[in-house]
Design a protein that fits this description.
This is Glutathione S-transferase. The chain is an alpha+beta fold. 54% of the residues lie in helices and 7% in strands.
Length: 196
C-alpha cells in the first residue's frame, strides 16, 4: 500500500497512528507530499489534492481519513480503531471537530492575513476552545483503550499546541493532556508528532 501524507496534517496523523496500532505500518510506503504543489502522481491518486490518500495493493484509491480507517479495520487485525459504539464515536467526533476547525484557520490565513479576527476565524477558535472542553469531559470513559477517541484526542491537542503555541490548550483538557503524557513514548504517538 502507498500512503500520500503530510507530516503536519492531523487527518494524516490519525491514519498513521492507526497503521502503527494495527501493526500495518511496515507494509505501507509513506510518501510525504506538499498538498499545495499539485504533484502529478499525487493528483492521479486523488484529484482533490488532499491528504491522506491511500492506494491499496490492488490499486484502489481511498481518500478521507475516516474512510481509510474503516478500510484498515476491515483488513487489519485487532485492535479495531472504530470499536466502542456511539459514545466512542461521539468523543472522536469532538476531537476531529477541534482539529478540523484548526486546519480551517491555517488554510484561511493563506488567503486572508486577518482571518482570525473575522467571523469565520472567531467561530473556528470558539469551536477549538469549546470542543476541547467537551472532549475532556467525554474522554474520561475512553482512557482505558487506544481506539479512535484516544488517537483523535491526542491528535487534536498536539495539533493545537503545534499550530497555536501562544494558547494554553492543555489547561482546557487536563484529562486528555494527562493521557497524552502517559502515552508519550508509545510508538504511534512518538513517531507521528507533527513537525514542519
Amino acid at each position: 500500500m502507498k500512503l500520500y501524507a503530510n507530516p503536519t496534517s492531523p487527518f494524516v496523523r490519525i491514519v498513521r497512528m492507526a497503521l502503527i496500532e494495527k501493526g500495518l505500518n511496515e507494509g505501507v510506503d509513506t510518501t510525504f507530499v506538499d498538498a499545495w504543489a499539485d504533484d502529478p502522481a499525487f493528483l492521479d491518486a486523488n484529484p482533490a489534492g488532499r491528504v491522506p490518500t491511500l492506494v491499496t495493493d490492488d490499486g484502489a484509491r481511498l481518500t478521507e481519513a475516516l474512510l481509510i480507517l474503516t478500510y484498515l479495520d476491515a483488513i487489519g487485525t485487532t485492535p479495531s480503531v472504530l470499536a466502542g459504539g456511539p459514545t466512542a464515536l461521539s468523543a472522536a467526533g469532538l476531537a476531529i471537530g477541534v482539529f478540523d476547525a484548526a486546519v480551517a484557520v491555517i488554510i484561511g490565513r493563506k488567503s486572508a492575513p486577518d482571518f482570525d479576527a473575522g467571523l469565520v476565524g472567531r467561530k473556528r477558535f470558539r469551536t477549538m476552545h469549546e470542543g476541547l472542553r467537551r472532549l475532556d469531559a467525554a474522554f474520561a470513559e475512553h482512557r482505558t483503550s487506544f481506539g479512535l477517541p484516544a488517537i483523535a484526542a491526542i491528535t487534536a491537542l498536539d495539533y493545537l499546541v503545534f499550530r497555536f503555541p501562544d494558547h494554553d490548550w492543555r489547561s482546557l483538557c487536563p484529562e486528555v493532556a494527562a493521557f497524552r503524557d502517559a502515552h508519550q513514548d508509545r510508538p504511534s504517538v512518538r513517531d507521528t508528532v507533527p513537525r514542519g
